[in-house]
Specification:
The chain is α+β, with helices and mostly antiparallel strands. About 35% of the residues lie in helices and about 25% in strands. It folds into 2 domains: about 150 residues, Beta-Lactamase (2-Layer Sandwich), CATH 3.30.450; about 90 residues, Severin (3-Layer(aba) Sandwich). It is built from 10 helices and 10 strands. The protein has a 5-stranded antiparallel beta sheet with strand order 2-1-5-4-3, with helices on both faces. Strand 8 and strand 9 form a beta hairpin. The radius of gyration is 19 Å and the shape is globular.
């Protein structure tokens, strides 16, 4: 069912693809790496939260409308780095499992087993050099293929009762604006259905995202949202944050999935 695997990592100068075991071109893998990892690590707070990331997806793959991905993030010991944060906390990395959109429902059904198995595999990936080892990653892909093709063959390595993931929403704040331009903080669980636009403040990345949730949202309302975002940046953060519109459909989908608005997988 899985057609390939891509390993991306957070280099000293930003995210990039380290190993591509798929038919996806390298420029697409790089695009997935830059957009995907930035979003997946959104809201990450403590090291413990990073080590227990849940399996995200399904997520769109750039320039491939019939291919989707699952993603699990984790940290490894860096081989060499000049970044003190990476040296102290490890190098953030992500495994992407690619599959055809026609297999989405099957992937949804097997999500718990896929998540548990991939978490077991990443526990054995301790050093940065392991990420670029094609033999090791081929074994990971082979095991995941076996689970999806013969689900009855999956036997967990251990039967621990700990949760499979920890929600990581630290560092995120959510706002919207009304037609008069009034800013208000929102509750994602109760307000989502009526929201035309989402203003997402990420205090860890020092970014403010403007996300249009409905295609019918007017430019007038988006102007109010931009003004409100600028006021937040000026009054609270002394203009230290960057502000931008999220226009790429893939990026929007990944952000919404990350913060729990879209939970097609694992929401039961």
């Amino acid at each position: 069912m899985f057609s390939g695997l891509i390993v991306t990592t957070m280099g000293d100068k930003g995210p990039y693809p380290l190993l591509n075991l798929s038919s996806i071109p390298e420029d697409t893998a790089e695009n997935l790496s830059v957009i995907g990892m930035t979003i997946l690590f959104m809201g990450a707070g403590t090291l413990a939260e990073r080590q227990h990331y849940r399996l995200h997806g399904s997520l769109p793959v750039p320039n491939n409308p019939n291919i989707e991905a699952l993603a699990l993030s984790f940290t490894v010991s860096p081989t060499e780095t000049s970044d003190i944060r990476i040296d102290q906390h490890g190098r953030e990395s992500t495994i992407w499992l690619l599959f055809k959109s026609e297999n989405r429902e099957r992937v949804f059904q097997l999500h718990p087993a896929i998540e548990r198995a991939l978490q077991e595999e990443t526990k054995n990936i301790k050093d940065e050099s392991d990420l670029s080892d094609p033999e090791k990653m081929e074994k990971v892909l082979s095991r995941l293929k076996q689970i999806t093709e013969s689900p009855g063959s999956y036997v967990p390595v251990s039967d621990e009762s700990e949760p499979s993931y920890i929600h990581e929403k630290g560092g995120l704040e959510f706002f919207t604006v009304n037609t008069e331009g009034d800013l208000r903080e929102i509750n994602l669980q109760t307000d989502l259905a009526t929201l035309p636009v989402l203003i997402l403040v990420n205090t860890l990345l020092k970014r403010i995202f403007l996300i249009k949730l409905k295609d019918s949202v007017s430019q007038h309302l988006m102007f109010h949202a931009g003004t409100s975002a600028s006021n937040i940046n000026t009054n609270r953060f002394k203009n230290r944050f960057s502000i931008r519109d999220v226009l790429d459909p893939m990026e929007r989908a990944m952000i919404l999935e990350k913060i729990g608005i879209i939970q097609e997988i694992g929401s039961q």
